[in-house]
Amino acid sequence: MPFLTAISICLILLVGLGLLERFLRGRAWKAVPIRIHVNGTRGKSSVTRLIWAALREAGIPTVAKTTGAAPRLLLPDGTERPVKRHGKPNIREQLRTLLLARRLGARAVVLECMALAPELQWIAEHSMARATVGVIANARMDHTEIMGADVEQIAACLANTIPFHGTLVVGEQKLADLYARCAAERGTKIVVASSDTNLSWHTENEALALAVTRQLGIADAVALAGMRLAPADPGDSVQATAECGGGPMKFLDARSANDPESFLRTVKTFMPDLKMRSTKTKPPVVVFNHRSDRPERLRAFAKSAFAELPAVRILVTGERPALTLWFALKRSKLAAPLEFIASRQLPDCLAKLSPQCGAVVFCGNIHGLDLSAIFPAQAHG
Fold this sequence. Notes:
alpha/beta; UDP-N-acetylmuramoyl-L-alanine:D-glutamate ligase; Protein-Tyrosine Phosphatase, Chain A; eight-stranded mixed sheet; 2 domains; 15 strands; globular
């Protein structure tokens, strides 16, 4: 076959596939009238589940997809299944979920935003989800290497998923003006769920989900009844007790709280007896699971969380930090001594420290650290 002929055939096929995708996407937008896109730094998976459960309780067949530590498809019959991936995560999953919702006869789809880069967030919303209700839970100092160097820049990045001619529900008052300006340009109404910064994570997420269901005309009693039935996300923070050093040891898995502010609030929620900067109880050991492709996360924790949380020791595990980052951390003003411990050595290290500490707090990154290998037998508290 001549080269130019082959190229022409390939181009025709690509154009044809593109037109077919546009046709299927447009048909799905019409068939699924309620489309909710959940964005933010922290709590997206939980909020997605709460909204899905509330819509189901209201009798609205709903498909949802979370993209956290363990991506899940949540189906109209109340079941869920893992998201099957062949290769790295790709935002085209959002379009596939929308098409699945149409095939299943769902009237609503709830998508947790899985894009980080500003241009991908824009595509995920305006070329795939085209939400009728957009949600921005919060803006925290995380993924700074991609989304921006401060909270305002991160919020501006998140604003890429504000829909046109729809409704935007935000979880925080402090950045509402920034979002309102962008929403006004797109003909979108903005609703602030809560201005109370002292809410626990569970209450804050519930308030945000409730603000969404109110926009859909669902009675609060119905929505809350559904939310109480929502299954917990696999990536939610968990407090448990395990054997360590010959005795029981409390531990908090807060690795899903990926930014310092969220982490400290999670610790205060689960372990209120650990007073910041002073405590009569034994302080914890803090274990940060490091990823070499997330160096700014470790730097951010060292600047604030590790300076505020009283600890016996701060252990960095997972992938070894770069020398320049490690030397910078060593020069930081931390609340406790800092050292690197290989994952395989963690069980022995924690056993030796157990007489001095009152708990173990895990943070940083979920992937790359298997807690069942550290605490083979554990009982959730």
